[in-house]
Structure formats: structure tokens, C-alpha cells
């Protein structure tokens, strides 16, 4: 991101605007070159560069403008700023910044973008504030700034050893013109970045003081639960709330809607003065649904439709000709299931809607989208819509959606009071949207040099939407066109003939993004089929992949993966599988080792995971994210799936949708590539490689190809 070098004082001061700060100045946001806001006087501290506030005692508060759902931004974003600000993490406190796209820029928590999209700007934020503090000290001492330096929250004069704390300097610093350019540290000089520092949110999350969505309480707040149509598109025909209203504390019962893409899904809200009363009242509610006018599909029908839709694709004649010129060819069908997000914390949201203002609190993954959506739907000026993020107990894309805050706001508006809407586990797992299922038709051939000569992967699936009402026409396939998520980019360069495409199926099941969207389903078919081609060519699976990597960065990843897994030491009766995927700017290689127990049941012995995410902030966070991704991928591969009967989700709770238990988790060993590449994502790229690596390991041990997920380990 290019940094603008010429900043006017007017533009700089216009970036102010955080209420509750004694003297606030903002910073020039290089992404747009725009500035808004004004100086705000209050009585807490002085804000420097929007993300930084320092009070007279020298207490530093760093604002995190991204949601924290376990992926580590609560630590990583302040860690970046603190590095150039020259303060230790022990010297700072961290607070959420509410939605303010003018001030903080885009705040979505998706695409593993928080670090890779913002690291340079955040480094400049810290460095610019540091230089302003140094200049303020130099002016007091009447010396040049070159004679001064900052460390541990103080500015020091080299010649005399004089020291001034940031607290003593911040008000003067706030009056200065910001530096037109700042020199950032070399990586070798980092004191904080790249170090495995203790996460600041660990303590509050373990002692129970962390504030999650359901912890928010407001004066006069009511509680609501909603009986939603289990068929997604069905309407409320009528309801009988006579028994519900007999429950002490129940205030109102009324129809409510929530927007799922372009469809309004209906339900009946039960509002009470306690959550218990609302839940008990809901149990007695009787609703008749109008489910006419749309299909009530089951999983078998959806799967059959995918198979029929795949037949609608015709391969390009040129590709079929090239495929025939291969020395050997192979075909396969792979199938992926629908999945629920099933976050540890079910959906919830607190809303307080007044005549010309809206305030939201909750586990919000995408504050800006929700702020803009509520402003438009309720016709309230965007500056009057406040979206406050709490900690999230998992997000995986679901909590970036717009439906549950809108539903809460509609209920609050109807009640003319603040309302907290809680989704039960059953609501959360059955109301959707879901991760889409998919079916893949794969064809490939190898040449005399034992490399891939032709490769085709075509999928039949749903795109993120409320569901398709008709069969969209498939896009025409052409040779050497199309893309598939999760695939290593070098394959596009080194495979002479390829053809990738997809057809959206007709289904009224609502679907949306799920951790590592696209790659979480595509990579399974792709990396398993690459393994089949390696076997067809009688090649070592890891060496086969490396032979197709032209970029030295990919080759280095293969070499390191071989080293850490001791790949060359594997024995004949072992089961070893590998997969290498790429998404959101990072490459991940995983090796899975499996074996047979004495009773002949299958056991996952160990997972070796290697990520190349380039420049990184906290290695402990990276290891935690890869471990979590692998466990989530394990559950999706062998534990659970969402099925449908007559248009309704079958699995309603964890008894039918089991999560991996601690005794089922294999040993996981995570390594990080060290290089000077630009940062990539971390929270999502660790997931796609596991399932194909596991299935490739099972083939290596048993000779059996598993092409459909999920499967039961005990059945292999």
C-alpha cells in the first residue's frame, strides 16, 4: 500500500473523532486519501493516529478495529503498533474500536485479511506516533530529533540521558504536524513482532471476565427467542400464543423476519423480561407454516441433482483431444457434504433501536457491513448506527452475515426497548445458511515424463445465496481457463492442458461462506486427485508435486515439509499422505501418518503441518490457528455433516453432529517457514489440506480410495 507523503495539517486533524478522548487527532488514511471528523474534547487521554490513546500517566491504550473470534487479532494488531511505538505489550491495554469505516477503513473479518491487508499501515501508525512524541521531547529540550530516541514508553536524549515519558509528551505531540514519511524498522530489529508473546485475552477468557455477546446487559433490556420456519423459505400462516402468554414475564408474541440474501425468512418472536420466560413461552407456542411454492429437498435428491448437473457440462474438444494424447488417464468422482458452522457460541445479538439511532452489541464478525445494512434498511443516518463488537466464541464466516443483527433490530423497534435475541443451539444448527455440498468430476492424464499432461475438475454445487429457484445455465468450458480454490498457483503454469468449471445446482437450501470458503471443498477433490495422478505415474506423491512447482518458494516448502516429517524414512506398511494447498496468500503443506491398531481399527498417528505465510506477527498464534483448523477439518472429514429431509436440516445438536473429542485428536506438529515474503492469511489456510492428506494416507496404508466425506474411521 503506497503511503501518501504530503499531509496537510487540516487533512490530518480531520481524521479525528473518537468520543471519550481528551484531545483526539487522527491520521491520514492512505487507502483513500480522504479525511472526515473533528477534534473532540473529553477527559480521558490523548489519541494519536486513531489506534493509539495515551493519558497523562503514560497509560497506552491500543484500539483493535477487527473482531476477535479466537484467531488472535486482539493480540496481533496491537503487537504490530506497539513494535513501532516502542512500548511493550505489558505497558498497554486493548479496547475494541466500534464500527467506523471512515476512521479505521474496512473492518471485515474475512479472507484472513487482518494482518496481510493492514500490517504496513499499522506499522506506520505506531512509527508516526513515536516520531511525534520524539519531536515533542526535542522541542522541550531544544535539541534536534536526531539526538533523541524512544524506548519502553519514554523518549531519551542521547547526550544527557534526560528522559520524558509519553504521558508527559502526548498533549504537545498531538499538536504537531504528523511526519510526511517514517522509517520503519528492519525485521532483524524487531523486539515484539515475531515473538511468541502471551495473548492478552487469555486471562479474561479463562477467568470468565471476557465480555461475549450474551454478557451484554442494558437497563430495561428484554429477552427474545424466535420460532423460525425449519424450511427456510416458509411463511407464517398463523400462530396460537394463548399458552405462551400464560408464562409469567412474557411481554409480546409477534411475527418477525430476517433477511437471508434476497429472501425474507419468517418466524414468531417471543419477548419476555427474562430469557427463561421467553424460552418457556416458545415451547408452548403453536405455529402453522405455509410451505407452499418451493421444493422440499432431501440430501439424496440434492446429490442426485448434482450428478445430473455434472452431465450438462461438455468438455472442450481441444481438452479431450489432449487428454487422449496422455500416456495414461484416470477419472474419479468426489463428493463433499453440507456442514453447519456450529460455533461454540450460538448466534446472539442485542439491539437498541430509537427514533433516529440504532446501537448493536454482539459477536459481530463484520461491523461495517452490518452498520451500512441497518442504516439502509431502517433509513437511519449511518453515523447514527453504532455497532459494538464483543468477543466471539467462533465465527467461521457465519457471524459476518447480516440477518441476525437485523432481526434483533426489528424486534427492538417493535418493542421500543433494548432487546437481546438469543439463538439456541438447535436454532444455530438448523436455520442456516450452511456450507454448501459439492460433487466433483475429475479427469486427468500423465505424459511420458511422468508429469500431468491434462487435468479437468468440474463441480456441481451451490454458490453463496438464499438458494437457486431454477437451474442456471452452466458456463461454457474452455481449455486453460477457469480456476479452482485451494490449488497451488504453479499448477496453472506447469500443467499444459487444464479445464476447470462449475455449475450451480437448483436448491432452496441457503448457503454461505465457511472457514476457507471455496478451498475448504475444492481442495479435497483437487489434492486427492493429484495423488491419484501421482500413483498413475508411479511417482512419490511429494516429489510428484514438487516436479510441478516452478516457483522456488513452493519448492522450498516441499523440501521443508519432507524434512520435518522425515518423509524419506517412511516404511512399506506405514500410511503416509500429503496435501499442499494455497489460499489467502499462504501455502500450507500437511503430512498425515496413519496406522492400524491391534484390533485393526484405523488410527491417525500424527499430523505435520507447515505454513508459509511470509512476514508474521506471533508464532504461537499461528500454531494455535493451524491446530484449530486441523481439528475443525478432522471433524468435517470423519465426524459430522448436515443432512436434509423434506427441506429441513436433520442434525439439531451435538448428539447428532459430534465434534472431535480430545481423545480423538492426533499429535499435531506445526512449523513456520521463515522468509521475507509479504504476509498471507493464517486463520483459514490451515484447514483445506487436512482432509485430502488424511485420505491420501489411508490409500497409502490400505489401497482404498475414499472419495466421499464424511466417513467413519472405524469403517475403513
TrEMBL record:
InterPro entries assigned to the protein according to its UniProt record, in alphabetical order: Ald_Oxase/Xan_DH_a/b, AldOxase/xan_DH_MoCoBD1, AldOxase/xan_DH_MoCoBD2, AldOxase/xan_DH_Mopterin-bd_sf, N-heterocyclic_Hydroxylase, OxRdtase_Mopterin-bd_su_IorB, TAT_signal
Domain of life the protein comes from: Bacteria
SUPFAM superfamilies reported in the protein's UniProt record: Molybdenum cofactor-binding domain
Domain (Aldehyde oxidase/xanthine dehydrogenase a/b hammerhead): residue spans on this chain: 207-293
Protein name stated in the entry: Molybdopterin-dependent oxidoreductase
Organism: Chitinophaga filiformis
